[in-house]
Amino acid sequence: MAKLKDSHHLSILELYEKNPSPSALECLIYHDKTARMWKGRFSQATADLVQKYGESISYDWRLYPHDIAGSIAHARAQVKAGILTDDEFAQIESGLIEIKNDIADGNFEFSIELEDIHMNIEAELTKRIGAAGAKLHTARSRNDQVATDTRLYCRTAIDQLVSLISDLQLALLGQAETYADAVIPGYTHLQRGQPVTVGHHLLAYVEMLARDQQRLIDARKRVNISPLGSGALAGSTINLDREAIAQELGFDAVTTNSMDAISDRDYIAEILFTLALCGGHLSRLSEDLILWCSSEFGFASLSDAHTTGSSLMPQKKNPDVCELTRGKTGRLYGNLVAILTAIKGLPLTYNRDLQEDKEPLFDSIDTILMALEVNAEMISSMSINVETCKAASSDPLLLATDLADWLVKEGVPFRDAHELVGKAVAASYAENTPLDQIDLTKIDPAFKKEAAKIFDLTTALAARTNPGAPSIENVKEQIHRWKATIRS
Question: With pLDDT > 70 as the criterion, what percentage of the chain qualifies?
């Protein structure tokens, strides 16, 4: 981030001492008023500790491109309303663009005394261009300004997230295609249940991520509404063209109630919920991979580039990315709870509690952006140990349900079939003999010798042809469909 400075006011005074011109004096006087935005009402300076407690510039500085875009659009509307001349607008626009470039290059010193990104930029603008900068805040409040900036920030973040989700989906699809027919046990209660394929398993996460993406896209519609022009809470007697401002900033519409526009943080809560849920999905994927990479499972291997070793045990290869993803999901959940707690019970309209919306928002977006990116990279370089998967899938107990289905097709009611197969499984354990090698006819006459044919994985998977089932043909069709959908 750009540099923080405890006292921006001192540098302005130094500037005036070096160049004691009328314009510099005017700038100094305005900056003194700006640094004390509300001091007409107060006789004492704000305590240093209060300034440090209440500042937000240490984190809301990242709103600067959105704040500047909003200010330029606002200034253009001021020209139309006769508040600014064309020359004054040109000065403001040029000054704001210079400030934006300086911040981007790290050549801007932020002041804690000026509290936030809005006042830091406005004060610097007035320092650079003089009186025209003092007119910029006409007909707006920091309340509608920050609401606008935050919505613009969220809109940009959503677009990034949607793209990164697609990248992770494509990484999963690439592996699903490579291992579309690699059979593994499917689990319930972490106990082997029925046969599936690696491709089918990974496609489940593609589905989850698609829902996350759809939720973000839907949330963007509610984000993309302009509150600028709502003022502190009741608009302004100086009526600017809100629709024109919204159009310039790429908003779809303007808010229709100034009080709600100022106090609304629903869109942040909605985004944080979606990111928390997305984190939950990534955490589940991480847990699967942690198990798969363990010696006990041995289904998968992660690249050396995406694992770490031990400072003591030289043989270790730890799935740190997965574990960190699993851990960081707790932060995503915590940030959601933080915003829900902050907004509960707040009377209309603006309350300083709402300043607590940004750190959870910024942290969740930073966290999930990195998680999506690193997981896509890790998944792409992952390898599946096909022979180990094949050995695990050779367990005939995986086809116990298929055996019950065979009995049903022979006319046995399912509950009876379930009981008979249960007895066969018990006999398998008692005799320490695989289920496909015991004499089923001794269990019950309903079993015939033909029942042994069901213990064939290829046949068993091929029979699962219903939509959503894990036949290899289905899996390949779904991979093809998803690739076409994501790339369109």
Answer: 92
